[in-house]
Amino acid sequence: MKMDRRRFLAGGLALATGAAAASTSLASRICLFTDHLAGFSYVEVAQMLKQLGVAGPDLTVRRGGLVSPDNVTEQLPKAMAAFRDQGLTIPMITTNILSASEAQTRPILSSAAKLGIGYYKLGYYKYKDLSRWKETMDATHRELIRLAALNRELKMRAGIHNHAGDSVGCVIWDAWEALQRVDPAHVGFYFDPAQAHIEGGKTGWNLGFRRATPRLFMVAVKDYVWEKSDGGWRTRWVPLGQGMVPWPAVSELLRSTQFPGPVSLHIEYDPGGSTKAERYDRSLAAADRDLKFLRTQLI
Description:
It contains 11 helices and 10 strands. The protein is an alpha/beta fold. It has a single domain, classed as Alpha-Beta Barrel (TIM Barrel). Strands 1-2-3-4-5-6-7-10 form an 8-stranded parallel β-barrel, surrounded by 4 helices. Strands 8-9 form a two-stranded antiparallel sheet. The relative contact order is 0.14.
């Protein structure tokens, strides 16, 4: 692979050290979402993250992810071993879990708990019919009650991601209502400023963050723009600082808010590359660029 890894490592670690000295509590908890790294081995991803100086991966444990739910009990320990060999851990996993009664839920969460992984992202509770929004929220509430009990047993914490669109949590208040009388120590929010800004670009995203704060576990970081095409207006993901997320206001809120879990950096745009080696180098460069921006925001 073409990049000068020693030069890259030296620069990345120097930046990480400087940022961590100024903001240890947040900068030391940055992890990298692995959705765009499908096709690479655990060892290859671990080596990349080591060079980036992050805490570890936000590891996808779902269909198409780095770890398949079908053989999680075998593969998740292997993934952890690869990251530990590089001096890293797995701060959180991203799942499609929606119910404690699903066949794969307990194996995934038990495997994670045994390895000391304390946080996971839930799947999405969909509004199939917006006119029946209350029924969807009530059904979500019942599932969260049962998941909270399982999380309490396993000492896990689940985060609802406020994904823009037709999912519970898209406007924060709906997930807040669904979370009432759900154990706040074991189910909370996985707040995403970009997704919140898509749904509430002027003030709604800010109010949403403040509403989520009492139950905030983790934060997802990305950036986006609106653009018009023949099919109408749509969102497109872009590198951090090149989009519409109001970073000065977001950064101020992040620095002033205490929450226990990781900060997950998402490379949602395509880093490019026509070969595996080229994709690796471009993914590494994209993450390095976004990490430099993110770390300056946490100082």
